[in-house]
Hints:
Layout: H1 3-10, E1 16-20, H2 36-45, E2 50-53, H3 65-82, E3 90-94, H4 100-110, E4 117-121, H5 131-142, E5 150-154, H6 156-159, H7 165-171, E6 182-187, H8 192-202, H9 216-220, E7 226-229, H10 232-247, H11 251-270, H12 274-283, H13 306-319
Parallel strand pairs: 1-2, 1-7, 2-3, 3-4, 4-5, 5-6
Helix pairs in contact: 2-3, 3-4, 4-5, 10-11, 11-12
Amino acid sequence: MDSKKDFKTKYSKIEGLIAAAFSPLDNMGRLNVDIIPEYYDFLRNNNVKGVFINGTSGEAFSLTSAERNKIVDAWVDARNNAGDGSNTFKLIVQVGGTGIEDEKRLADHIKNKPIDGFSSMAPIFFKPTDRFELIKHIQQLALIAPNLPYYYYHVPQISGVDFPMLNFLDTIQESDYEIPNFAGIKFSLPNFYDYMSCQVKYGERYDMPFCSDQILICALTLGAQGSIGSTYNYSAPLSNEVIRLFQEGHVIKARNLEEKLNQLSKFLHETKAYFAIAKRLLKRKNIDLGIVRSPLMNLSMLQANEKEIMQSVDKYIEKIDVKNLLCK
């Protein structure tokens, strides 16, 4: 049997919304994994289908390897204690780091864990000069946990590494560059030309969750089945409604609704404290994830006081009429 065809039947594709989990810290910036069981229940109750752990939204590169491992273990325990499995709530772990040895250790930690996949972005300091170097780097990580599906995290906005993913997928078909447990691409760059080409040629073989959450509807038209994003922490009902409308053929209504999420996201980013505000929105739901670590900005570091900032957020939410579509 063809190994790639066999792999396709072994692992299911990501469907629905996966929250890019925020870092669980306290108000002094120290790790606080005790909040994760409540965080788990909150997302689960808002029809989120899983979490992407220790990614960009999780401030992975502001955490130590030991902290990242503790976060993974806490999410695994939370799912186990809830009596759920991968068919109910997926756990996907990002193991990319600034050095290959740290990355290997992070991958080694999860290789026997009951998780549903792992991922890494391209090195962000010494960068591969072409896709061949990138794939050789990825091979070293993916093969540490050969029984888990591996996703390449394509996020050149952060990593600074941007090669066409169609060429990347073509190359891993070659024997020297094969990755037996390669499951697909976490596609965080909104390059729809490249995304469409990848879906047309490899969409039946590989999974390609689209991860620019504010324009998910565009990816749905090109074959996306799942999405990973930070906004699903606080606005999953809105995006689930976008998906429902699209699936029922109400494309214009879906587009107009998602534009509201686009507006809200833009408004929050313009404050220069997006992650801090997102965490504050969750704190209102009794999910206290603390502050963010430097160099990210906390609300106390902005010119306006915290109360004024959150009042402006509330007014904007009322203005675009999405209050009832945010997480409960």
